[in-house]
């Protein structure tokens, strides 16, 4: 094990933005702890990343399940690793009207997007503060800035994540530890498939961002110690306009973007 190099831990590291972030860390000679549910995808990802000459440790765990975030921390500590950079990328959504969606699925999303993220952040951040150094990148979303009909739970969880990021960053300002909030827009990942929203207007009619570009924006902001970054020019404009637009109007605008594409035919 090359202990002289720094370690970054990334959840959701086998696809999308998480994978692209892992590639950036690998190119910068960080050792990696990559976390995801599927062991085979983890192994395949590790093989690719190791070509950069780094050490890659894989941990397969399901962060939808209560207690697994704590177990992840225990596993890392059991390996004697110091995590210098933490990236909480794992997150999912569920598509449809709140009244129609299954409550159990929505609570699972809250468990993953909020409870697991908070737990992992809490446990690793204490170690970082105790030694006076560390960086955290928590992936929020431009969804954090507006109410989201057809994705009410997802938007709500990401609003929590972004607010949480900014609050703890302020608390940690004199500790040597930074927290960065990454706000991507709609990105070309497996998110929409997992959320069951491939028939939504935002997928069928919108322009999806390149996850590699989003990851680079987040990586640069993290390394520079910035508080947040909105990825993409159009998303920056959207967030800026949203700051002066009443929430009820934003909700109506978001409904038109996220409703099923076949609503055009009605």
Automatic annotation (TrEMBL):
- What Pfam family is a match for this entry? adh_short
Domain of life, per lineage: Bacteria
Q: Which GO terms describe its cellular component?
A: membrane
Q: Which UniProt keywords apply?
A: Oxidoreductase
* GO function term, MF aspect, one: oxidoreductase activity
Keyword Oxidoreductase present in the record's keywords: the answer is yes
For this protein, the record's InterPro entries field holds: NAD(P)-bd_dom_sf, SDR_fam
Q: Which organism is it from?
A: Pedobacter miscanthi
Q: CDD domains this protein is in?
A: SDR_c
User: What protein am I looking at?
Assistant: Oxidoreductase
Q: Has the keyword Oxidoreductase been applied to this entry?
A: yes
Taxonomy-wise, where does this protein's organism fall, top ranks first?
A: Bacteria, Pseudomonadati, Bacteroidota, Sphingobacteriia, Sphingobacteriales
Instruction: Tell me the protein family, please.
Output: Belongs to the short-chain dehydrogenases/reductases (SDR) family.
